[in-house]
Specification:
Elements: H1 10-38, H2 43-66, H3 70-94
Helix pairs in contact: 1-2, 1-3, 2-3
């Protein structure tokens, strides 16, 4: 059973906000990496370094925010998912004509 005696909504707001910012940064960096990596001379270097940097940062922040509390970790994860949804909406609205879809001539 998960203890909930010291649980308050105000103690979960900061982890949620941090998770949302982390999710926005994580998925913006992923979008940026794909955008730059497509035309790069060494795309593997772009994708590998981005993967290591993004995952290292996300794991470190989750560990720091979670602080051995499942509720704080859950709030941070929920914020991370909300950050993904926000960045998907923002990036899709920034490119309404779908210009990036036609960037690769060899892909369907």
């Amino acid at each position: 059973m998960i203890p909930i005696e010291n649980l308050s909504l105000t103690s979960l707001i900061l982890p949620f906000v941090i998770g949302t910012m982390l999710g926005c940064c994580f998925f913006y960096a992923l979008w940026f990496t794909v955008k730059k990596g497509i035309n790069a001379t060494h795309p593997a270097l772009w994708f590998l370094s981005s993967l290591l940097l993004r995952m290292g940062t996300a794991i470190t922040v989750f560990y720091w925010v979670g602080d051995n509390d499942i509720w704080r970790l859950s709030a941070c994860l929920a914020g991370f998912v909300i950050g993904r949804i926000l960045m998907t909406k923002i990036i899709n609205n920034a490119n309404p004509n779908g210009a990036e879809k036609g960037a690769l001539h060899h892909a369907p």
